[in-house]
Design brief:
Elements (H helix, E strand, L loop, with lengths): L2 H13 L3 H20 L3 H18 L5 H19 L1 H6 L1 H22 L7
Helix pairs in contact: 2-3, 2-6, 3-4, 4-6
Length: about 120
């Protein structure tokens, strides 16, 4: 299967879910970025960042402008991390900073999703 059809399938699956769950997927991926940074798992970070950037691209037109702006800002930061990933993973302090920021982003997106509110 080629990359385009895989991406098309991932997009169709992602878009078939409601907004809250799509935001939950983004939050979960950001938590994975944190986890993979902590273990310096480069390929994991790369794959999850790529997927998260696509998820943000696909959801942004369907959510409130303020939420879309916040997600796009996260997307820009993800792209910066991608460009500097080798240096980040080699430097324990930078790796910890990225992991902490990814966790913060994850929590903000999870809050945005409202999924935790539905559990109470």
């Amino acid at each position: 299967m080629d990359t385009k059809s895989t991406l098309d399938e991932k997009k169709a699956s992602f878009l078939s879910e409601d907004i809250s769950h799509r935001l939950g997927h983004i939050a979960s991926n950001l938590a994975r970025v944190r986890s993979f940074c902590n273990s310096a798992f480069k390929k994991g970070v790369e794959v999850v960042i790529d997927e998260t950037e696509w998820f943000i691209e696909w959801i942004a037109p369907e959510i409130e402008p303020e939420q879309a702006e916040e997600l796009v800002n996260i997307q820009v930061q993800l792209a910066r991390w991608q460009l500097n990933l080798d240096n980040i993973l080699l430097d324990e302090l930078r790796r910890e900073e990225v992991a902490k920021q990814a966790e913060t982003y994850s929590q903000r997106v999870l809050d945005m999703s409202g999924l935790l509110e539905s559990l109470t």
